[in-house]
């Protein structure tokens, strides 16, 4: 269970807060899409959850642990339970697909193994399975920077699977992809969500994609929640409230 209690983020030098008193609960197994205009605070929202951004006020509670007050050790453990995928994939371009996937369980590997590139057989096998699961075994030995955007996002998803997270966060995971690749990635994320019952929170820019895949939609505007409901409850009036109408 994830709970945000009056989370506020004020970046230094900004006239208004990026997030203002966000209060909500996300139940295990939900598939949440965050919608909102550019600058609404969606990325900040996602990053406050895993502690990449520290809220100015309020608390983020993950399965009873206060992320906002967690020490180094606890935050490390919490982050391992939260996988994250990004718009620009965040792979290491000069490394091959398999090594990028193996990096997902970096925390359980000793530093010298990671540095020397020598990985235990069982870790390699697990990474091969993760690549197989995302339908991309053939890129195992290909450099990540030679792959298409859709392939790179699949490798990033396989890397997250190695981490065995309980929560998947996505910051615009399909924003850089063409419509076909975007649909394939969303189908894959839905499949993983269904098979693993993995709580999923994605920041998306497309209303139709959100309505097709999410079980719950949260609309953010100027750092505040202006819609929180089921996909079928999001009609044109609600979309207008999120994107157009003045607050
Ligand atoms: N590191 C930062 N320092 C200062 N201001 C920031 C920082 N990151 C974000 N902001 C500001 O906070 C507000 C919310 O930004 P955020 O990136 O969370 O919005 P967003 O909804 O994800 O936007 P987009 O869809 O354009 O990525 C914006 O006004 C942005 O300029």
From TrEMBL:
PROSITE patterns assigned to the protein according to its UniProt record, in alphabetical order: ABC_TRANSPORTER_1 (PS00211), ABC_TRANSPORTER_2 (PS50893)
Organism: Marinithermofilum abyssi
Protein name: Phosphonates import ATP-binding protein PhnC
High-level lineage: Bacteria, Bacillati, Bacillota, Bacilli, Bacillales
GO molecular function: ABC-type phosphonate transporter activity; ATP binding; ATP hydrolysis activity
Residue ranges of every copy of the ABC transporter domain listed in the record: 2-247
NCBIfam families: ABC_phnC (TIGR02315)
GO cellular component, one term: membrane
InterPro entries: AAA+_ATPase (IPR003593), ABC_transporter-like_ATP-bd (IPR003439), ABC_transporter-like_CS (IPR017871), ABC_transpr_PhnC (IPR012693), MetN_ABC_transporter-like (IPR050086), P-loop_NTPase (IPR027417)
A Pfam family that the UniProt record links to this protein: ABC_tran
Keywords recorded for this protein, A-Z: ATP-binding, Cell membrane, Membrane, Nucleotide-binding, Phosphonate transport, Translocase, Transport
